[in-house]
Amino acid sequence: MDKFWRWVVNEAEESPVRTLHLEGYIAESSWFDDDITPKQFKTELYDSGPSADDIVVKIHSPGGDTFAAAQIYNMLKEYPGKVSVHVDGLAASAASVIAMAGDEVCVSPLSVFMIHNPAMLIAGEVADLQVGINLLSEVKESIINAYQTKTGLSRAKIAHMMDAETWMSAHKAIELKFADKILYESEPVDEGAGGFIFDQMTVTNALRNKLPGIQARMKYLKAHVDDGGKTKEPEKSADPETQGEDDLKDPDNSVNQIPIAQLERRLELIKNWR
């Protein structure tokens, strides 16, 4: 069976250390055997018996099945040894829930957390859709339980962050208590050290606000660049709304040096961004 986890044992250590790598989509292979995947995971988790040694859980995953993540979370919380979670790259969606099970959560300086609302495909009449809505609402509340237990943040704040689809850098994750420390850094992280946090709506609106300016620059360049790629001298415009376009003649202006085709591709990427 294609598993989304693998175990590695470092025999070189004085006491062998088991490392669990969670990679790819959580339970991506469990569509046809949901009852097998969690059982197999539990068997391998307790491979060393009841007096299990400490383990390291390395996560790099965009998420996946919420219920499989809940089972893994519970298994790790109940594990008798110490569970140290290391977020190597991305801990998004269901993977971020699993990360909350660690006795300590360590993040790479380059890693990112993402939390959002649960989603599912729903089909049928109004009653069927309402059942789906109720289910998603309850699943969201259960996910908030895991985040709140770890971070101590209010349920309202966490719910708002999930509504907005929030992305957090390593420093911001520590500031909000989703993580405890940054790997490879000798000095403790100052909670006021900064970091980024953004949500999908804010980014989308920011890009949309830039579109009129980008479109105006593209129109200007199309009108004043000949077939050979050389800039033609434009006529002075008396329109106050377009006077700023004259600044594009400045050879130091980087936008004026970008080929039209490249600008168009960038604009299409922005327009189609999700």
TrEMBL record:
Per UniProt, the keywords (alphabetical) are: Cytoplasm, Hydrolase, Protease, Serine protease
Q: Which Pfam families match?
A: CLP_protease
Tell me the GO molecular function terms: ATP-dependent peptidase activity; ATPase binding; serine-type endopeptidase activity
> Where do the segments described as Disordered lie?
225-259
Cite the record's Basic and acidic residues compositional bias ranges: 225-239
InterPro entries given in the database record = ClpP, ClpP/crotonase-like_dom_sf, ClpP/TepA
One GO BP annotation is: protein quality control for misfolded or incompletely synthesized proteins
Query: What GO cellular-component annotations does this UniProt entry give?
Result: endopeptidase Clp complex
Highest rank taxon of the organism: Bacteria
Q: Key word Cytoplasm present in the record? A: yes
Family designation = Belongs to the peptidase S14 family.
Protein name, per record: ATP-dependent Clp protease proteolytic subunit
Q: What is the lineage of its organism?
A: Bacteria, Bacillati, Bacillota, Clostridia, Eubacteriales
